[in-house]
Amino acid sequence: MTASQYQAARRFLAKIDADWAQLVKQVDPCKFEPKAEREPYDALVRAVAYQQLHGKAAAAILGRLLALNRGRMPKPKKLLALEFEQLRGCGFSARKIETLQGIAEATLAGQVPSRARALKMTDDELIDRLTELKGIGRWTVEMLLMFTLERMDVLPVDDFGVRDGYRRLKNLAAPPSPKALRDIGATWSPHRTIASWYLWQVPR
Fold it and tell me: Which entry of 128, 158, 159, 164 is annotated as an active-site residue?
């Protein structure tokens, strides 16, 4: 994300209403930090590690996986060569191990595209293609879109943190449903990625 993109998003969001203006002011500067150097395979493996876990627990599991390959993400063939018990020892569940192996196999088969290929695909094309993989849902692909491919108009409405952030922002009794947030967030386009980042930061 360039400085000009961030400033444009910041100004846009601050003009939505007084709540957004206060939030932008309170949590600035924006520290949204995509990892543009990563391949989709790498990003998907990392996203699986973080599925349904708190950040520290997921980071520890991922760290143990990287330690099996001298601190680097195992390539697809190397990942497939790892024993089940090695992956279990990292902290992955049996279901997640199956998902990781599926990602590796799909990468070797070309279903998981290279970064160069992914950059030429639309958000919907990538979501449709990658959610065919077992254990890969829309949220996982949206994290890839946001943090690896630097797509600036993604709103992960299934993310509880985003929905609960909106609840706190607006002092609501309960978070909006995914559908309700999708409708509300339509007006945040084309800056919905940065809007999501700010909602993750709403003070508790």
Answer: 159
Could you give phi then psi for residue 120, rounded to 5 degrees?
A: -95, -5
Residue pair 194/13 in contact (Cβ under 8 Å)? The answer is: yes
Q: Is 153 a catalytic residue?
A: no
The token pair at 139 is 């949220």
**Among 164, 118, 115, 156, which residue's Cα sits nearest to residue 138?**
156
For residue 144, is it left (φ>0), alpha (ψ between -120 and 50) or beta?
alpha
> Which alpha helices (H) appear in 51-137, and where do they start and end?
55-67, 76-81, 84-90, 94-109, 115-118, 123-130
Helices (H) and strands (E) in the chain, counts: 13, 0
Structure tokens at 88: 């279990």
Q: For the segment 85-106, what is each residue's pLDDT rounded down to a tens digit?
A: 999 999 999 999 999 999 999 9
Encoded tokens for 116? 């160069």
Residue with tokens 């800056």: 191
